[in-house]
Amino acid sequence: MSHIHMPDGIISAPWWVSGYFLTLMTMLWILKSMDKEEVRKKIPFTGIAAAIMLLGMSVPLVIVPVHLSLAVLTGILIGPKLGFLAVFVVNIILAFFGHGGITIVGLNTLIIGSEVFIGFYLFKYFTQRLHKVMGTVIATVIALLVSTTLMVGVVGMTAGLTEALPHHHGEEHHQEEHYVEEEYDEHHHGELQEEVTKIKYLVFTGWRAVFLILSAGILLESLGTALIIRYFLKVRPDLILPPQDIDI
């Protein structure tokens, strides 16, 4: 849902370098703070969760033109720290397969990694107060909304960034530049509107189609995550719940 598919060269260096820096710093903190014994126990599940996430992010849904990330599911099953590491590995593999450039792996890891952390902690919060399936749905919906907003914000801020930078070469040039920037913004706003009008889904077009596609994708991923969690709660509740919450 929130994976950026831009090729290399679109996002300027300061942005993707910052993305890598923040990602590597986060991973360094995770590696230093994790319990080694816990990591050994969860390594097999980490590989399985990463493989499932890779499959979901590689194959688009048939009924909706988006793909699942399953990042919330990963966070719930193996925890947010190992989940974040799994997200980084999955993004590296996806980049080699052409699902976005190598340069945006850091940004993609931060965005999708936010789903892992937010989904995990919201799952813990809601499932203690609501029915566990309903809590899973709510946690997944909120996490997806946040990560999708982050993705849109990152793409919006990085697109055309160099052209928007101010230049100070005198008042006359500044006024001319301001006029050119207004034309640039109007031009790109018109291009955006033109591209949106081309989007069609079922009987809807434009922004209605975009809203319906995103809503359907979020709903499907939330329901899918909830059903998988429901299955694990029946067969292996110890993978999800703390010992004191398991009914014996």
TrEMBL record:
Q: Name one Pfam family in it.
A: CbiM
Q: Which GO terms describe its biological process?
A: transition metal ion transport
**Which InterPro entries is this protein grouped with?**
CbiM/NikMN (IPR002751)
Which parts of the chain span the membrane according to its record?
Answer: 12-31, 43-63, 70-96, 102-123, 135-159, 209-233
- Sorted UniProt keywords: Cell membrane, Membrane, Transmembrane, Transmembrane helix, Transport
Q: What is its main location?
A: membrane
Cellular component (GO) terms are: plasma membrane
Cellular location(s): Cell membrane
Topology in the lipid bilayer is annotated as:
Multi-pass membrane protein
Q: Specify the signal sequence span.
A: none
The question of whether S-adenosyl-L-methionine is a record keyword is answered with: no
What's the protein name?
Cobalt transport protein CbiM
Q: Which organism is it from?
A: Clostridium formicaceticum
